Amino acid sequence: MKRSSSVIRRAVLAAASVALAAGCTAQAAGSGGGSGSPTSAPTTAAPAPTGAPTEDGKPPSPSASTATPTDAPTETPSGSPSEPPSETSGPKALMGDGDESEQVRELQARLRQLGYFDRAPTGFYGTMTAGSVKAFQKKQGLPRTGSVDETTWQRLLGASRKPTADELKPSTTNELDTPDARCMTGRVLCISKESRTLAWMIDGKVVSSMDVRFGSENTPTREGTFAVERKVRQDWSRLYHTPMPLSMYFSRGQAVHYSSDFAARGYNGASHGCVNVRDRAKLTTLFDQVKVGDKVVVHW
């Protein structure tokens, strides 16, 4: 009896040692009470990284989350290297497209001295100014950005001289023609389509003048003798959805006003019938001098 019981005891111990050596812990770690065979552990663990449920329909065990840290490091480096260069991608621009200031006017005057800018300074930084800056940068061996950084500005200062008052604000780029006879008396905005100029005249004398642009063939600027009907310092075209600063209306919706498009593109464009002025500073002075009721003459 004792011998048979000792034989049974040795068999039980042998079986237990085999189970421990095989790592048979599936039932303790698994979620199912009756499915704890050694072969069930690998089959339930395999779908866990994809987030699939276990065989008994319950969510994956917490051990499945161990796959997440292995993905995180691959996401962080992929986007980070491209961000710092965008914050430090070249020198800071002092002047660029859309800027309007007296420094821009000086820039244009200095570029004109060197033959890179072929018109009167307007103080507005548009496509023509950007093209002139690119040409100067190319000559100087600088990056052709079209905007003015500190290096470009210092090179330009060294290559040119301080502009005179006449260079900064010349009368017009276009030469004035002989005033129309209707412009020789009183206070008159004398506007010539032939020379594309506006002359502010008082009793036959030219007080100031500036370049102007007219409407296209489809929206022509009306000709004749008119009067300033009203003045609006900051106006907006409800018909064409464009700003109309310093507007002096003389024929229904047609007015003399400042145009940033004219300042930027010159005669490559046209108005919708208004008389565009591209020098805001000069027009501001004129706007303050002109009174409602003053004569307007538009002629060839």
Question: Can you characterise this structure?
Answer:
This protein is of the alpha+beta class. About 35% of the residues lie in helices and about 20% in strands. It has eleven helices and eleven strands. The strands form two sheets. Strands 6-11-3-4-5-10-9-8-7 form a nine-stranded mixed sheet. The N and C termini lie far apart (about 135 Å).
Strand order of the largest sheet: 6-11-3-4-5-10-9-8-7
Radius of gyration: 41 Å
The oligomeric state of the chains shown is single chain
Strand content: 15-25%
DSSP E strands, number = 11
CA-CA gap between termini? 137 Å
What is the N-to-C succession of helices and strands? HHHHHEHHEHHEEEEEEEHEHE
Major β-sheet annotation? 9 strands, mixed
Identify the overall geometry.
elongated
Any low-confidence stretches, pLDDT <50, length ≥5? 1-5, 12-88
SS content category: alpha+beta
Return the average pLDDT rounded to an integer. Answer: 78
Number of helices: 11
Helicity range of the residues? 25-40%
Structure in a nutshell:
With 300 residues, the protein is an alpha+beta fold.
Draw up the topology in text.
Layout: H1 2-21, H2 26-29, H3 40-45, H4 68-79, H5 83-87, E1 93-95, H6 102-113, H7 127-140, E2 148-149, H8 150-159, H9 165-168, E3 187-192, E4 197-202, E5 205-213, E6 224-227, E7 230-237, E8 242-251, E9 254-258, H10 260-265, E10 275-277, H11 280-289, E11 295-299
Parallel strand pairs: 3-11, 9-10
Antiparallel strand pairs: 1-2, 3-4, 4-5, 5-10, 6-11, 7-8, 8-9
Looking at this protein, list some descriptive labels.
nine-stranded mixed beta sheet; 11 helices; disordered N terminus; alpha+beta; 300 residues; 11 strands; 34% helix; single chain; 20% strand; two-stranded antiparallel sheet
